[in-house]
Amino acid sequence: MTSAALVARSVSALAGGPWTRFGLRRFGRLLVSVWVVVTAAFLMIHLVPGDPVRAALGATAPLDVVEARREVLGLNDPLWTQYGRYLQGLLSGDLGTSMTSGLPVSQVIGDRLPATVELAVYAFLLAIAVSVPLGLAMAAATRGGRRRHTELAFTSTSVVLAAIPEFLVAVGLVFVFSVQLGWAPVAGRSGPSSYVLPVVALALAPAAVLARIVRVEMLAVLQTDYIRTARAKRLPRRTVSVRHALPNALTASLTLCGLLLGAMVAGTVLVENVFAWPGLGTTIVGSIVGKDYPVVQGIVLVYGVGVLLVNLTVDIALALIDPRSTIRES
Amino acid sequence: MRAKRGSTWVRALRTPVGATGAALLVVVFLLAALAPVLWSAQASAVDTSQILRGSSSAHRLGTDSLGRDILYRLLVGTRLSVTLALGATAIGVGAGLVLGTTPMWLGARLGRIVGAAVNIAVAFPGLLLALFFAAVFGIGATGAVLAIGFAIAPGFARLTQTLVARVAGLDYIAAARIAGVGRGRVLIRHVLPNIGEPLVVNATIVAGNALLALAGLSFLGLGVQAPAYDWGRLLAESLNSIYINPSAAFATGLAVVVAGLAFNLFGEAVARGLGLRTPSAAVVSDRGRRTPRAPAPARADGAPDREPALLAVEGLCVSFPGPRGATTPVRDVGLSMRRGASVGIVGESGSGKSLTALAIAGLIEEPGRVDADRLEFLGADLRGDRVRAHRHLLGTSFAMVFQDPLASFNPTMRVGRQLAEVAEEHLGLRRAPAWARAVDRLRAVRLPGAERRARQFPHELSGGMRQRAMIGMGLMGTPALIVADEPTTALDVTVQRQVLRLLESIRATEHVAILLISHDITVVSHVCERVLVMYAGRVVEDLPTVDLPRCRHPYTRALLAAVPDLATDRSRPLTVIPGRPIDPSEYPVGCAFAPRCPLADEHCRHVDPALVADGHGRRVACWHADATPAERVGDPN
Questions:
Q1: Distance CA A315, CA A319 (A)
Q2: Is B274 in the A-facing interface, judged by CB distances under 8 Å?
Q3: Distance in angstroms (rounded) separating the CA atoms of residues B62 and B56
Q4: What is the pTM of this model?
Q5: What is the value of ipTM here, to two decimals?
Q6: Architecture of domain B311-631
Q7: Which of A33, B137, B144, B340 has the fewest CB atoms within 10 Å, measured from its CB?
Q8: What integer is the mean pLDDT of B6-19?
């Protein structure tokens, strides 16, 4: 148990309502996770086997140049001093300096982040917009074991689509729509048409997974006692579906949405590289290859915190829709 | 254990998905083993006259920037791709197993710390972890394998933790521990063999994902480096020349997908096989419609007055289609109720009493089927789709109370809102007055702090409160009938009493009829004037409660005898009805109770007795109903 979690626990023992407890506990967990991410990012450069500066500058670099660079980066100080300095830098928005371009890492990230966020957000919205109505329609169509062939086709298609990694989908899309049909540009970020293929490539697998889950959840919810109660109240069929079934079906799907959105953050890395998209994904790969550790550290931090924020958002949304989850949080 | 495991894997091979996955896996492994031996020379033959050509008869998938044949490179690349994937899987599974079983190695406290760390790591997508480790280990095949391996570990550790926790709670593990068997020994001898199967299945699926992920890393240029090549690297190279030679990129991508799917499909098929139970072969029978018709109950229930029936049911059947033909769990049920009446239906679980209630309420869902010669409520015909036409009548006059009050309330809506929507829907009230009525009704069912409770969610109320609120929901309109399906079964004994008393007082003050469904004949006899006893989907006896001591069906007598009272000799075991209730798919030709009946003879086993009225307001379906008490074998009285 870390001290933050302990503090959260003892405070929650004093505080009253389930919402206060939920908020404190969730915030405590976020702090712990952020600390883990920050520490992992800091330790990365020290985990590299051998001398990272030697690796970055190459085997032929003169010893005094390597030493000078080590001194500049503060790598010769004791680990604790470096850790303290790193945390201090983070708090003041200083993520270090790129070893290759000499630009501040925060500036590199600031330049590249919007393109990545755009890609992820559009893809997420597309996945939701397609999969939720599709899953609901399939649930309605295949209820009570009807239309078994439709169900089989839907399930197997979604399983296969979900199993294909984004970068292969991306290559497939480029092959069909850019090379064969010439409808969309092969790469780059210029104008609305250049967004279509990357966004679709990123959204396809999550949409397939989500549509399947929404269908299964909806079918499960329609079987519950409280839906029978709603029907016993003789509410119109649409009211039963929209007011009583949908919110409950979406709570379970929402948990999955968090995982999918997190995976989507990672998926941007591959998709960006297929389409030469000027985002964080192309930058981190270039920096790993070029051993530009401060940039890699900074971007790992951004991705990690991004995933944590996604999870936090989902948990809060979940608590708003289904009040029982504030209790479950413990 | 071994034999069972073998049969599961073999059974998985017989399913179409499993067979496809296995066949593809065999092809992939054969290629991995043989292709480098057979075609290494062709794959590395440089031909500077054939640089970056498209598909031709000499080079089916064209050539790369050094004029090497891409098809051969693709085939030869299988080995490296598969080997690396298996290596990463081995690392990930090994690390995951160690992490996931730490509580058993290092004790609970250290185990908790490792568990917390695993939980944090699991929250991050595998590819992000892989990128992190790739940056640490440096680019190249070794780095990529380590990176993917470590990225797999947290997820696998989580799985192992879950499985170990499940097994560790079992009695024989606890016994081994108490007997002083060491932790490591318990783990290896007792725990791992029992969770081996799901672990192996998941490792198979993980191997497929590792293959895809490694292809991804190589594709990004972080994995395999020239001159070595795997599929990911080939894909990256062919993407650069996708305009000249699209078939190369397409074929390489296809190879990756197919190989990845092969692992996944095979693993999924086995996983599904593990969870599957083959349905026991049961005899098909559907005799629901063939049973002799019971006489119309309207005249038989001893109700001489002219007042129109509140509820009239004749020849009610409920059937469900099944893989071996339809089953009919409710057969030819008839009953009639007047205003303010109280009728109870008793029977063991599976006797069809709850389905009867749902069928009367028109709440049987597809694919279930309801047939009835007559089904009328307040003069409205409720058969088939006509239920919907009488929506408002039913919504205000026909109330239902279900067994489990927690499950029967929508967990995401406030209690008051769930009551209020009835008034909005059927009484045309606006939000505020509907809410006011909801609070008023909650007061009427004596819910303490009605106003506050209305604003709460169902899980914030106690079981008894919820059931009161559920009854209050039925009072939102002006009910003529409350159908209560096991309303007290899920409640504490003291609370049961209160709920039953509430139902009785509502019946008395509001002149509401109550149809009470219960497995408990004492509950029914306390509340109801009349009792219908159901067995195997049929009414076997129908009589006034006061006549229960003089009941004539051996099943009714058995139900009464099974109730302990103050005079019961507690030194002897409680009376039970021998045998089990019969499954609706196995109804026999004769009397369904015959196999458990002390009076049954050959006639009973071959001819099903009809429900016969005796002219004194009682009906019974038994060939031995008129047997004198002396003839009754095993008579409890």
A1: 6
A2: no
A3: 6
A4: 0.74
A5: 0.82
A6: 3-Layer(aba) Sandwich (3.40)
A7: B340
A8: 74
